[in-house]
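User: Batch of two.

Assistant: Item 1 of 2:
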Amino acid sequence: MIKVEPVSILKFIATHFGIIRDLYETQKNERLIKREIFEIICSRNNAEGIRKQLFDYKIIKPVQEDYELRDIYFNLIEFLLYEFRPLLPDEIEKYGVAISELFRKIKEGINGDKNILLDRLSALSYQIKEFSESIDRNKIRLLSETRNLKANVNKIDYREKIQKASFWTEHYILPLNKILDVNHSESIANRLFAISEYANHIRLTLTEETIRNEFEKLYFQLNQTNDELLLQSKILLNELIPLIDRIRTESLVLTGWLEFIKNPYKSESPKLFKTERLTPISSKFNLNCKEYFEQFTETEDVFIEENLTEVNRWIFNKSLFKQNLVSSLPVDDFFEWCKLSLLDQGELTNEKLLSLTTLLFEEELVISNSAEAESTKIQTNNSVFILPKIIVQNNEI
């Protein structure tokens, strides 16, 4: 038991945050803090005087001959530094098992012991909160990893980029998307939706006030959680998965070979080398020469008439339009912005409109679909386009 004021522990952490951060970084990379590394960190930070306090305040605990930060402090430093470890979907599924089991027992004991029912409702609320926070941490880490991969911060070659992109997609992004798919019967999001409907029914029909209030709290918590999960799912579908797909299709040739290597027996492999015997002179060389010179035996008068009609050719100044778009961010309807920008350039044509759509592929911009199911109608000189509303924002990376 810690016989010290909580504020003293917080002051200790704030005063000696440097050594605690070094211990955190070591444990994050090595899983444990080796005894010799612990000694080096203490010596480097002149922490000989506070070594005893690290153990008295229960910040460090021994693990055989080594040490480790207690989970509560490790999670605190992880949150402060915003360096979340990506959780495997298998780890997140444990919340689904706990939530399902608690929900089953709540339904079975709805008319049973009141105190047990209240404890189960409290435990269910805690598990839902833990699940939502773990999803949020995973989203933050996956966004960071995929954006760094797209920007190639570590200057890795394309083959390694493809391997990393495939790794994040296969083991994290797609399984996480399945967990958040409310339409999937086995997903945690689907279970939470079912619990929300049950809680809403109980809060409206139960007469016992204390339990009814707890079900009402649970219902409103689930409403907020379901909205947050829907937002996380949209980020996965609209940003993470398209970003990974762009990384994997940067080189069409290499991507094609990677797909072929995954399943080499699906189609017959092409013949890469084929030997042929060729001569430097064609067998029809004489006939070709005769035909060539015969065309000059008889010549006809040729009259060249210059076309004096001036054509005003429109040249797409990409840098100028990009600058105008960036200065207008955020743009709620990209194609409406294109229409207004092109009307200042004279006649609105298909060529001009299609040229401006290339701005959507600029890395400085982040695009997303509008939540409203509306469209924009644009009429050019010879066509009518029905286009979705696209939101363009600045990429903060």
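Item 2 of 2:
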Amino acid sequence: MCLTASMFAVGLGSAYPIYEERAFWGTESVVPSTLVMVTYLFVVGGGTALGLVVTWFAVTGNLSLTPVFGIGFGLYLLLTVGVSYGSYRYAVRRYRRYTVT
């Protein structure tokens, strides 16, 4: 989850960049907007919670491998990896097209 969360963060930061400094915890810093932070925490927190629940059931032996679980878990992995990789690729494309004027 750390790898996918970092890839998602890079893409999200590239999509909504902030260049102005503002006071944050007593110092001037460039921090993301509140909407970007809430989106990031919602997506990563929800995905991590689902992953932890599935891991807990797998470790305790209460996980039954049914076709519904397989489809749901496959969809979860596809979304987790797909959205994160897509965000990362977006950030790379945007960085390569950036020119200093």
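The first strand starts at residue 22 and ends at 24.
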